[in-house]
Amino acid sequence: MTDYLAEDFTFPIAAADYVARFRDAGRFIDCCRACPNYGRSWGCPPFGYDVAELLGGYRSLLLIATKITPQRPGLPLSASQELIRPERIRLEKRLRELERRYGGRACAYIGECLYCPAGECTRSAGLACRHPELVRPSLEAYGFDIGRTLDELFGIELRWGRDGRMPDYLTLVCGFFHNAPYVLGWGD
Q: What is residue 74's predicted lDDT score, i.e. its pLDDT?
């Protein structure tokens, strides 16, 4: 396991404001269509429900950005999952705890599903999800611009690897849509 530092940053925002400013479903659905997981994973579009209607049912959103900085610079890009996986597990567990405590809807799914072996999602066979209690689509899958979110709300630049090497840090973004007057449980 590679040593790294993970820092969480939070940003509460009115759900309607975030949707109006950062959601461009048409643009991002085209990106999703180019991905091999499109229509093949239960965490990916197309969805069997109206995303705008779902999100319109919530007043507030707690955004969480996690910055993962490897202790050794210049790691191969192939090592990125060694850093991302434990953070995804931690983040998704905390988001599900918020759902249980406050109701609401978490967006956490980042990349491939953690709960089924690679390439074995039941969706491509036309079967129900094995783990619907665990899988949460990402903000990207719902059409949100994560680069702008990071830049404008967190002041963090979205970085990409080059020449087979990881950038100096990785960033995960997730969120919790809810109607609670306040949410405790993330950094408080």
A: 87
Contact 10, 187 (CB under 8 A): yes
Name residue 4's beta-bridge partners: 70
Look over the chain and give the mean of its residue pLDDT values, rounded to a whole number.
Answer: 92
Strand ranges, E, within 48-154: 60-70, 105-107
Report the candidate in 90, 68, 93 with the shortest Cα–Cα distance to residue 79: 68
Domains of the chain by residue range: 4-178
Who's near 19: CB < 8 A, 6+ residues apart? 52, 55, 56
| One-letter identity of residue 99 | E
> Of the candidates 157, 150, 140, which has an alpha carbon nearest to the alpha carbon of residue 27?
140
pTM of the model: 0.93
In this structure, the strands spanning 170-178 and 60-70 are antiparallel
pLDDT tens per residue, range 14-68: 999 999 999 999 898 888 889 888 888 898 899 999 999 999 999 999 999 999 9
Phi, psi of 178 (to 5 degrees): -160, 175
Q: What is the mean pLDDT of the segment spanning 62-78?
A: 94
Count CA atoms closer than 13 A to 149's CA, side-chain side.
29
Task: Report residue 130 as tokens.
Answer: 């094995």
